[in-house]
Write a structure and sequence with these properties.
single chain; 264 residues; alpha/beta; two-stranded antiparallel sheet; 7 helices; 7 strands
Length: 264
């Protein structure tokens, strides 16, 4: 999986270096600077590679995740989004920021022919009052070190065929994307009113035990629990990085020892 994120996130202690090592794409939100970075990564993602055993040429399976809004939802973000919408003569959203189209359109155009579907995920965190924002309630510190993560993370997934998305007309694509975001805004309103997204009758369903007063799982929803198998599992993402650091350290020690032996 490759994730496109704003550049400031790579400076988060511990997590930032881990994300850089795994090839996440960090953007300065300046298209002149960002386009070469994206183009370099997309060229690798859409290139076929020969299998070492089969000898066949194929594309590597991958997910590319991006956030078209360009930033997280906050008071400042909402004000900026509303101001931009007013300037453009567009209706503002109640729960969403207006998406930026340039980067997403470029990615889809470049990946056309190698990707069949675009998946959209609308996310809602339990426990956030109307008009408030997740960053004010749940942080990395509160979630990982204070034991106060969201009680539940609710997701509504949709998928769109690449062949149905107007990729050859920037204006048509902007209209298509804004319509999708208006639908996402309606989904969030449904969640705020009911504490759930709309049911999907086609979803794989099962009855699951619930510890809250809603009882067992309802048809049209998939409910599951995600947890670490071991408390130290989170650190596994840095194992390879630490391995390289150890090798570099041993090489450095060896070079130092050789220099001392030859009197350099």
């Amino acid at each position: 999986m490759f994730i496109i994120l704003k550049e400031s996130l790579k400076y988060i202690p511990v997590l930032g270096p881990g994300m850089m090592f795994y090839g996440f794409i960090f953007l300065a939100r300046n298209w002149t600077k960002d386009k070469p970075r994206i183009a370099h990564r997309l060229q690798k993602l859409k290139s076929k590679h020969d299998g070492p055993l089969s000898g066949s040429s194929r594309l590597d399976p991958m997910w590319l995740m991006m956030f078209p809004e360009g930033t997280n939802l906050s008071n400042n973000g909402r004000r900026s989004s509303a101001k931009w919408a007013e300037k453009q003569g567009l209706a503002d959203f109640h729960h969403e920021l207006h998406p930026r189209t340039t980067g997403l359109l470029y990615c889809l155009q470049e990946l056309r022919g190698t990707v069949d579907w675009v998946y959209d995920c609308t996310v809602a965190y339990e426990g956030i009052p109307r008009g408030k924002y997740g960053q004010d309630f749940f942080t990395l510190w509160s979630s990982f070190f204070e034991g106060r993560p969201p009680k539940s993370v609710n997701m509504y997934w949709r998928r769109f065929a690449m062949s149905d998305i107007p990729l050859d007309d920037a204006d048509a694509f902007s209209r298509w994307l804004r319509l999708r975001w208006a639908e996402k805004d309606d989904l969030m309103e449904t969640y705020m009113q009911n504490g759930r997204f709309p049911a999907d009758d086609a979803a794989v369903t099962r009855e699951v035990e619930s510890t809250d007063d809603k009882g067992t799982g309802s048809r049209g929803f998939i409910e599951t629990e995600v947890r670490l198998a071991h408390w130290w599992e989170f650190g596994q993402i840095f194992v390879v990085l630490l391995g390289f650091a150890l090798v570099a350290h041993l090489i450095g020690v060896g070079v130092t020892a050789v220099r001392e032996l030859v009197g350099v």
